[in-house]
Write a structure and sequence with these properties.
It is a single chain. The radius of gyration is 24 Å and the shape is globular. The chain contains 13 helices and 20 strands. The strands form three sheets. The chain has an eight-stranded parallel beta barrel, surrounded by six helices. The protein starts with a helix and ends with a strand. The chain is 23% helix and 18% strand. It is α/β, with parallel strands linked by helices.
Length: 603
Amino acid sequence: MRTFILRALAALMLTLTALATGPASAQTASGVQGPVPTGLPNRLLIGLFEEAGQNWMRDSGVPWDVRYRYFTKGWVDNWGWGQRDGSWGAAFMQESATQNFIAAPVFYQLFGEPGGGEGESLAKLGNATTMRGYFSDFKLLMQRAKEHGRPVLVLIEPDALGLLQQQTNSNPNAYAAVAATGLPELASLPNTVAGWSLAFLQLRKAVGANNVILGMHVSAWASGKDIACCSVTDPLQPEVDKVVNFLKPAGLATNVTGTTYDVLVGDPLDRDADFYKLTRGEDRWWNASDTASISSRSFNRYAEWLRLMNVATGKRWVLWQIPLGNSNHRNVHNDGSARAGYRDNRTEYFFGTLGDPHRRKFANSGVIALLFGAGAGGQSSYQNDLGTDGQPYVRSRAGAFLSSGGLTLPAVGTTLPLPGGGTDGGTAGGTDAGTGGVDGGVDGGTDAGTDGGTSGTTRGYGFESGTEGWTASGGQLRAVSTSTARAYAGTRSLAVPFSGTSGTGMAVVPNASVPRGATVTFRVWIPSGSRLTSIQPFALEGAAGGWRYTGRWTAISNLRTNTWNTITVTLPSTSTTPLYQLGVEFTTSGSWTGTAYIDGISW
């Protein structure tokens, strides 16, 4: 009876969201809306900002998921240092892929176009010459991304739509030069602000860059009330409705392009909270208490706004540019010295003592990625963000989270359970040990013989006659070879030698003819004393499958050394065959030059 009453109250709270003034309510039974975009793993992604040519992420030993970087005005020709062909952007994407990160260009070019700054955004949209060059540059990005051949997450123009909503008085039909640019790909689009937003979808479609995942940036202040900072006692639903009504014709609802944006993009704050407090006298701190009112400046309020937007649009969220400050920073301009930078509590919220329930709460609000990075100079950074234990804060905490397997995202219409019964259950798979995701351990045992001794040579790879097309990818690995040193079955296995460089490398084979929905089993031998932290069997579908990626991380601490471990990955029931790639990713945290072995791959 008590459970029934609680569920009834939760349903009632959903209808009264706009009037809510008490503590944040439990996630409602309606669950998360909208699928995880094709091409992204079905787990919470963690990423960082990093400039092209830098290798901190690679050398950190953490299996980061996403690497983002701004593509500002001038990126097309490397700001005058290269050809006007977008090769600089292609190099960033390839560099990210080589290090096994999903590349995430942030297309942030509008404010660098001639004609003024943010206040002149609408005027720039009305200039056909400016927009012709602008969209030609974006078309080049789509062409280079298509050639990249892997999933690319492109975040479109931070804050631009919020500024345009305010500058047009929420009129998506205000004039903008779209078809008027004369670009043939845009000839069918209206010369409106909504048409301007649709142009990104149309150019992706025209180029055929089906591996690109497009993110629409939604500012928390777009409605005219800053729900995360200042207008914290106003009901949320009316502000959500204002923004959604403006954005629907701009690419959230059915439109002439035949496609819609794949994700929503938000930034919880662009600078550390104490930077605002100490330099501008503004309070941007969020109450981290799980009982904080949604009518207060709190994580609960922001999470509820995200959830309402998710329900209204059917799109999940990528949160980016999340400040990196923690409570141990010295509240000084960051000069690179230990603990330099300003204090904030967002990294501690997601990776501190209560990080697990907080990550689940935001996943239940539709969040699929947390991307951290400073939005301006002088802020806290991951290179010197020491915690009170003397360890690099984000590197050690996020590293532990990712290396242990991470968090499987809730399926459509479900929510993840929170400690203490914070939801009404109803998940598909329940926790991060759920369906097709990460279970922090191994499937079917960790030694030979647990599955009846299947050798895997009849449907898969046994390496008795050579490497069978398998190769090494990433600087962490040397060339693979067939070896008699170890064997799960027969006399040989695939030797995977490590180069001594920390980071993530992978052993892969192209064009594996794995049936749709199959469970692929791998046997992996890990020697004692290795610096490996986690491994992940994975499958990557090609263009026909929308570049869908399926994998599951397993922490090395959950595997045995000096014996054969069994790990598996289950493909979606609609997977395509042959696969673009089938393989195993290995993450190492130090300069180890030993060898791991793979054998008995079967399905």
